[in-house]
Amino acid sequence: MSRLAVDVGGTHLRYELVGEKEEACGSVSSRDTEPARFIESMLERYPDIDAVAISFAGQVNEGTIVAAPNIEVAVTDIRNHFESRYGIRLRIENDLNCAALAESVYWGEKDLVAIYSGTGLGSGIVEKGEICHGWRNLAGEIGHVPYREAPFSCGCGKNNCLELYASGSGLRKWMEYRGCDGDPDLGKLFRSPDGRCREIAERYVTALLYGIGTIATLLNPKMIVLGGGVVQHSLFLKERVEREIGKFALNVSLEGMKIETTRIENASLEGAKLLLDTM
Ligand SMILES: [Zn+2]
What we know:
This protein is an alpha/beta fold. The protein folds into 2 domains: 2-97 and 267-277, Nucleotidyltransferase, domain 5; 108-261, ATPase, nucleotide binding domain (Nucleotidyltransferase, domain 5), CATH 3.30.420.40. The chain contains 10 helices and 12 strands. It has helices at residues 35-45, 78-86, 95-107, 168-178, 186-191, 195-219, 229-232, 237-244, 251-254, 267-277; strands spanning 2-8, 12-19, 23-29, 49-56, 59-61, 64-67, 89-94, 112-117, 121-127, 130-131, 223-227, 258-261. Strand 5 and strand 6 (64-67) form a beta hairpin. Helix 3 (95-107) packs across helix 10 and helix 4 (168-178) runs antiparallel to helix 6 (195-219). It is globular, with a radius of gyration of 19 Å. Zinc ion (ZN) is lined by residues 144, 154, 156, 158, 161, 163.
């Protein structure tokens, strides 16, 4: 039999097929690919698939897609759809939860939080080796913690989310608002001769520190792993966070706590593969 892991992000849909006869992996644009239709096309090509695990960049609960701000979804009741029509087992989990699970296994730490700053800002919490879900699987939404009012709105509809400062989309929105040209690249913003650009970069770091400090104080993890596109393009961030995090968290929460930058290329897909092992 074969098993399929799928990572549905805002830009890419990545997959990996782990089979007895055949193995395959690849990436397609998630803008042109509806997740359930993609899985159906894989079932046609590989009829021996008997289990599917999905890492999904949106809110999911009990096998159902609850909200997907950046992804077109036709089938929301996705677990029931595949179990009843095709007789295959399916598990779907939030992408940050999947990433945190993969980080926990990679670093060998059972009490860990992954904080990823890419297009958005999110976190996944692993406690005693298990994903912390919250009542309706909404735990870890650090990006939407109220922070400061901004002159534009977040994808969630509010205008004061941490994500508006400490994410790639936030950087882009501030650059547009302030009339700064170029890419939302933190290193370039810091090196810019334009003071407005440097200020946006500085505010990003302060907001990220606020998010990391809040997580450390609230959840007391043994390790925080930073990841996501903005962090992975700005490797100087780790040192800066280590130097300044003391101002943003309770001192005893930081004692013995480690901060690392991710070393996994696609942690959410790796996490989906780990979910397959639990099915
Ligand atoms: Zn928000």
